[in-house]
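Supplementary Methods. Inverse-folding protocol.

Structures were first reduced to a discrete structure-token string of length 423. This string, shown here, constituted the complete conditioning input.
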């Protein structure tokens, strides 16, 4: 008798492979709440330090001093923490920004491993089971998106200088606040459980929501996986941190600009943050016709390089440290103190802040403002020479500013005008 059941005798297609929204899709035996908790605590410490050093870097530009320094003019109350950036210790910015950039590079393997470890939860359905769960998922979305945005833009700015001319500072600044707000919310939600898991393990009878329900055969233990992540971070540290030092250590920085050999030999052979050619500086604007214009209550005073050399000369040993994280060791600068030029301009009793203008024809930070404490410091110079030799064109000939603890771009090269007291 004929079988009248639907599809009888017909071979139905087998179900397809599971989708990423299904727990069975994720089969790695390494995933688990303890593995994720270890990575999370490492990121908690690292990202907190990143955020603090990033805010310090922004403060070092003195953005509340003058409009020319402020690359995020709509920051509003987000600039509540800004303060007068000090001049001591003279290596302060070299240390804080070196930590910021190096740590950001070192944390990349940890961040990628953490994102991999929680991938099943990123794809889980339904998107929200309750109002609390919806808030958690939203914070997770902002956290992941913010982390990727901050790390990617930061790394691109290190590797490809001035990739975002005029826009990197607001992008990175606002992105950091959005990311850290999500990071803080996520930490408040997850830290107690992470600490409990690390101290006591999962409570009896509670499932590991990150573990695969159908794990594959293990090829590596969770401890070994953490060791691989740590080894990746150590490798990045070993191949990037050297750009903050001179000599042999700089040659180990194989994965970052400013690594390897110095750009030249001799007194002017140290690292250059911006070449004369890139800034549009040519010999016709730096030769005999060049004059420094000093402006203040005494009026406008124009000084040739010969006249500046005839003034009392002072020396200071200071590094160059840039926002990209690289720096030099202390170089021996020689020139006229900024406070002496302030006195010449008509401020003999107490030097005010100064607006420094470069003759460069292109590029950011052609004009910057320095605080009165920076002008007052005896190590702050209008430098005419370095390491016993005249400045080279790439290092700012005929004259440049050098200020202790200031970011590299605040040490203006090819100075043409100093306006004291009007910021």
């Amino acid at each position: 008798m004929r079988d009248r059941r639907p599809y009888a005798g017909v071979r139905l297609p087998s179900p397809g492979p599971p989708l990423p929204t299904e727990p069975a899709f994720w089969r790695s035996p390494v995933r688990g709440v303890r593995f994720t908790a270890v990575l999370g605590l490492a990121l908690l410490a690292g990202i907190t330090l990143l955020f603090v050093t990033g805010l310090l870097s922004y403060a070092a530009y003195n953005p509340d001093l003058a409009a020319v320094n402020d690359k995020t003019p709509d920051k509003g109350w987000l600039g509540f923490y800004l303060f007068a950036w000090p001049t001591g210790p003279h290596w302060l910015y070299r240390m804080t920004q070196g930590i910021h950039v190096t740590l950001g590079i070192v944390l990349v393997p940890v961040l990628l491993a953490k994102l991999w470890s929680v991938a099943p939860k990123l794809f889980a359905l339904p998107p929200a089971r309750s109002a609390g769960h919806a808030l958690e998922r939203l914070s997770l979305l902002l956290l992941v998106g913010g982390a990727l945005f901050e790390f990617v833009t930061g790394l691109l700015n290190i590797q490809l200088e001035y990739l975002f001319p005029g826009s990197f500072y607001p992008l990175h600044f606002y992105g950091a606040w959005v990311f850290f707000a999500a990071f803080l919310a996520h930490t408040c939600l997850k830290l107690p459980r992470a600490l409990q898991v690390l101290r006591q393990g999962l409570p009896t009878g509670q499932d590991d929501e990150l573990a695969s329900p159908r794990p594959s055969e293990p090829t590596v233990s969770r401890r070994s996986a953490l060791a691989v992540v740590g080894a990746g971070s150590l490798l990045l540290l070993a191949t990037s941190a050297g750009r903050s030092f001179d000599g042999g250590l700089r040659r180990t920085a194989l994965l970052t600009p400013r690594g390897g050999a110095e750009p030249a030999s001799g007194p002017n052979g140290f690292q250059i943050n911006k070449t004369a050619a890139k800034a549009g500086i040519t010999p016709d604007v730096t030769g005999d016709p060049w004059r420094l214009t000093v402006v203040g209550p005494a009026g406008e005073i124009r000084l040739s390089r010969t006249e500046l050399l005839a003034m009392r000369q002072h020396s200071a040993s200071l590094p160059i440290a840039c926002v990209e994280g690289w720096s030099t060791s202390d170089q021996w600068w020689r020139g006229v103190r900024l406070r002496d030029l302030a006195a010449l301009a008509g401020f003999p009793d107490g030097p005010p802040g100064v607006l420094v203008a470069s003759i460069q024809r292109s590029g950011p930070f052609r004009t910057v403002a320095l605080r009165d404490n920076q002008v007052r410091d005896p190590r702050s110079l209008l430098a005419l020479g370095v390491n016993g030799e005249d400045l080279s064109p790439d290092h700012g000939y005929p004259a440049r500013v050098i200020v202790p603890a200031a970011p590299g771009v605040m040490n203006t090269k090819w100075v043409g005008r100093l306006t004291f007291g009007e910021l």
